[in-house]
Amino acid sequence: PKGVALVFSYEADWVLATQPQGASFRYLELVFAMYSALRRLGLNVDIVSPDADLAGYHMVIAPSLPIMTDAMAAKFAAFDGPVLFGPRTGSKTGNFAMPADLPPGALQAYLPLRVVRVESLRHGLTHEGQGFTVSRWLEHVESPLHAELCLDDGRGIVFANRNLRYLAAWPDEALLERLMTNMADEAKLPTTPLPCDVRLRRAGTLRFAFNYGASQVELHDLAEGADMMIGSAVLPPAGVAVWRA
Q: Which of 244, 186, 239, 232 is CA-nearest to residue 212?
């Protein structure tokens, strides 16, 4: 199993850097936040292009795809698994204009919602939800869909239809963890919340553990009774362990 496809777009990076609509909206930072959330859950992550073949993956994360074509929207809608789109997806046309039917543009054929207003939030201004906080960027959404997650004031920030989800704000770690865990459950991908600085990678029947921190970490809960091939269940700083599942 391939696990998770994280869609990285150089075009998206260029578009959002050219017109950030807020100094704190940084595409690379949003990509890294979503990548880190997936890795903290012990999930396999491949970074792929928007044109990549998604066959074999269990779920797809697209941090933002501001230029969303009809073909791209159809491709993601046909994917057999949960898909998440981050803020500002479908907010531009190929000519760098706003879609006539408002964002998320072509995605509306499969995800019935419209972003009718956006806010670039100044530093220190946040909005609270149940156990999470959003900052930097907030979109006001009109939709017949019932919001999966809302702010405390009732505004929806996560909307879903069939396999597609839209995130209408800049998320914190708690919100990303909730989203990624729920999607992994839907995709029947097992998650393993990891100690700080520890990351896993699966390759067939082999499991790899890496300690990126400066302190020793014990992996007994992860590798109890495992057939250790390299290292041990006690990972030193910068240590690596490999075992057969």
A: 239
Torsion 178-181-183-185 (CA) sign: negative
> Under DSSP, is residue 226 helix (H, G, I), strand (E, B) or coil?
coil
Tens of pLDDT, residues 131-184: 999 999 999 999 999 999 999 999 999 999 999 999 999 999 999 999 999 999
Angle between helices 173-186 and 27-40 (to 10 degrees): 60
DSSP letter string, 68-88: --HHHHHHHHHSSS-EEE-TT
3-state secondary structure of 38: helix
pLDDT digits (tens, 9 = 90+) for 195-244: 889 999 999 889 999 999 999 999 878 877 788 999 988 999 999 999 99
Amino acid found at 219: L
Cα angle value 149/154/155 (rounded, 5°): 70
Distance CA 123, CA 126 (A): 8
In angstroms, the CA 4 to CA 181 distance is 12
Question: What's the pTM?
Answer: 0.94
